[in-house]
C-alpha cells in the first residue's frame, strides 16, 4: 500500500513539541522528513526528562517517529551551502524557533523563496502579529493567553491548565492543515507560500465554544453552567467545573472504589432523547411522568440534584460496569481512563493508536501512532532517529555530495 505523502520532502527545523508534532504527522503519512539538529546537541528534548541515563528521552522519541536526523549548523559557511541545497531539494520547510531565529541564520523568507519558489515555509509562532509577536511561548503560556485556563477549573477555583497539550500539539496539528492546503494550492499555482500558525490563535480556535458563551452571556445567564440558577455570573465566561460544553448536561460522577482509586469515576451525559431510559436504569422511573423532571427545560434548575441521584446509582458499580449498562441504552458516557489503562487497552494496540517500537539504545517503548486513519494509505510507526544518524546518507544521496565534501563539512564543524 502506498503512502499518502510519498514523494513529499520536508526540511524539518523544529524542536520541542509543537513543530515536531506537525512534522511527525507528515512523516506518518509517508513524507520524507529530514530533521535538522545542532551538531553535538540536537533537539533539546533528547536530554530532557530522561528516564534512562544517556538515552534519548521519551519526550523526544515519542515526537520524532519516522524521521531522519541530520546534524547541521547553518551558521557556518559550509552549513549555509548545505542548507541552501536542502531548501532546493525540499517541498516544505517547517520551523518553530523563537521569532527571527531563521532570519538570523541568514535565511529570511524572501531568500528561501528565491532559492526555491515552490517551497512552502511553515512556522509555529507563539503569538500572531501585534504587541506580543516577539515573545517566546510554551504550552501553558498558550493555554493561559488563549482562553483555556480562564474557562477551565472548578467553580470558585483557580484558573487551570489541561493535561491535553492543546497549545503545542494543538498548534502542530493546525499547522499540518495549513501545509496540506498550501501543497494543494501549489499543484495549480506552481508556487509555495508562507504558512504561519500562532499558538494563542490555535488555543482560541479550540476554545470556540467559550467565545460562543461569552456572547450568550450578554443575553442572560448560561443555563447549562453550574452557576445557574443559584450562583452569580460576572461579565466573562466563568469556570464551569466538569459541566458539558454542549447543549446536553453532563458531569463526572463517582463509581465503586472512588475512595482509593483516583480514576474510579465516569462522565455521564443526560442526553434528552435517552433520558427516560437513564431514569429507569438508575431507579428513578417516576421522573418520566413528573412535569418537574420529564423535560430538559424542567430539569435545568435541578442539574446538581439530578447528578447526585445518578451518582447514588453509579457509586455502587465499577466504572466499566456503568458503561456496559448505559451504552446499550445509548446514554453517552465515558469512564475516566488512567494513562495506565490506556497503555494496556488491547483495542488501542490493534488499531495502531498505541504502538510498541524498538529502539537500539532504549529497547522497546510505547508511543502513540497516527490517530488519523486513511483507508488506502499505510501508516507504520518507526522509531525516532539517533542524533545525526542519517547525516552522511542524506548529504550524499539527496544532495549528491562527495565523500571529500562531507569530510570537509565535518572538519568545519558544519555537520
Ligand atoms: C520554544 C522556545 C520558547 C524555545 O526557546 P529557546 O530554547 O530559547 O530557543 P530559541 O528558539 O530561542 O533559539 C534557538 C537558537 O538555536 C539556534 N539553532 C537552532 N538550530 C540550530 C542549528 N541546527 N545550528 C545552530 N544553531 C541552531 C537558533 O539559531 C537560535 O539561536 P539565536 O537565538 O542565537 O538566533 C522558542 O523556540 C519559541 O518561542 N518558539 C516558538 C513557539 C513554540 O513553538 N513554542 C512551543 C515549543 S513546544
Description:
- The strands form 3 sheets. Strands 3-2-1-4-5-6 form a 6-stranded parallel beta sheet, sandwiched between helices. A 3-stranded antiparallel beta sheet has the order 7-8-9, covered by helices on one side.
- The chain contains 17 helices and 11 strands.
- The protein has 415 residues and is of the alpha/beta class.
- The longest helix has 22 residues, at 168-189.
- Strand 1 (9-13), helix 1 (18-28) and strand 2 form a beta-alpha-beta unit.
Unreliable sequence segments? none
Rounded to the nearest angstrom, the radius of gyration is 26 Å
Taken as a percent bin, the fraction of beta residues is 5-15%
Bound molecules: coenzyme A
Number of helices: 17
Largest sheet: 6 strands, parallel
Task: Provide the structure class.
Answer: alpha/beta
- SSE string, helices as H and strands as E: EHEHEHEHHEHHEHHEEHHHHEHHEEHH
The number of distinct β-strands equals 11
The amount of helix comes to 25-40%
Q: What's the assembly state of these chains?
A: single chain
Quick one: overall form?
elongated
Strand adjacency order, main sheet? 3-2-1-4-5-6
Overall pLDDT level: 96
Distance between the termini: 35 Å
Amino acid at each position: 500500500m502506498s503512502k499518502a505523502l510519498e514523494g513529499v520532502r520536508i526540511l524539518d527545523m523544529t524542536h520541542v513539541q509543537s513543530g515536531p508534532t506537525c512534522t511527525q504527522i507528515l512523516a506518518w503519512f509517508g513524507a520524507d522528513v529530514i530533521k535538522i539538529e545542532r551538531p553535538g546537541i540536537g533537539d533539546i528534548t533528547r536530554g530532557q526528562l530522561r528516564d534512562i541515563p544517556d538515552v534519548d528521552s521519551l519526550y523526544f522519541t515519542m515526537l520524532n517517529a519516522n524521521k531522519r536526523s541530520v546534524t547541521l549548523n547553518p551558521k557556518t559557511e559550509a552549513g549555509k551551502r548545505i542548507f541552501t541545497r536542502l531548501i532546493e531539494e525540499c517541498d516544505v520547510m517547517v520551523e518553530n524557533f523563537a521569532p527571527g531565529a531563521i532570519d538570523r541564520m541568514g535565511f529570511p523568507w524572501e531568500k528561501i523563496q528565491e532559492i526555491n519558489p515552490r517551497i512552502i515555509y511553515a512556522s509555529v509562532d507563539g503569538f500572531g502579529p501585534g504587541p506580543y509577536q516577539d515573545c517566546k511561548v510554551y504550552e501553558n503560556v498558550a493555554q493561559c493567553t488563549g482562553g483555556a485556563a480562564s474557562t477551565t477549573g472548578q467553580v470558585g477555583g483557580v484558573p487551570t491548565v489541561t493535561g491535553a497539550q492543546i497549545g503545542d500539539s494543538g498548534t502542530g496539528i493546525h499547522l499540518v492543515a495549513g501545509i496540506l492546503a498550501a501543497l494543494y494550492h501549489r499543484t495549480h499555482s506552481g508556487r509555495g507560500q508562507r504558512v504561519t500558525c500562532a499558538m494563542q490563535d490555535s488555543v482560541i480556535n479550540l476554545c470556540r465554544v467559550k467565545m460562543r458563551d461569552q456572547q450568550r452571556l450578554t443575553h442572560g445567564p448560561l443555563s447549562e453552567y453550574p452557576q445557574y440558577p443559584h450562583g452569580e455570573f460576572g461579565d466573562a465566561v466563568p469556570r464551569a467545573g466538569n459541566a458539558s460544553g454542549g447543549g446536553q448536561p453532563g458531569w463526572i460522577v463517582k463509581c465503586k472504589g472512588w475512595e482509593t482509586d483516583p480514576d474510579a469515576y465516569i462522565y455521564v451525559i443526560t442526553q434528552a432523547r435517552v433520558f427516560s431510559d437513564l431514569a429507569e436504569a438508575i431507579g428513578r422511573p417516576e421522573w418520566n411522568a413528573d412535569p418537574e423532571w420529564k423535560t430538559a427545560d424542567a430539569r435545568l434548575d435541578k442539574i446538581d440534584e439530578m447528578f447526585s441521584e445518578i451518582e447514588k446509582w453509579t457509586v455502587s458499580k465499577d466504572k466499566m460496569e456503568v458503561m456496559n449498562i448505559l451504552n446499550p441504552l445509548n446514554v453517552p458516557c465515558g469512564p475516566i481512563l488512567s494513562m495506565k489503562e490506556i497503555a494496556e487497552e488491547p483495542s488501542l494496540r490493534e488499531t495502531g493508536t498505541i504502538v510498541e517500537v524498538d529502539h537500539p539504545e532504549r529497547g522497546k517503548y510505547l508511543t502513540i501512532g497516527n490517530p488519523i486513519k486513511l483507508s488506502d494509505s499505510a501508516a507504520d510507526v518507526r522509531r525516532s532517529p539517533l542524533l545525526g544518524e542519517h547525516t552522511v546518507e542524506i548529504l550524499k544521496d539527496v544532495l549528491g555530495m562527495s565523500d571529500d565534501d562531507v569530510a570537509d563539512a565535518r572538519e568545519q564543524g558544519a555537520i
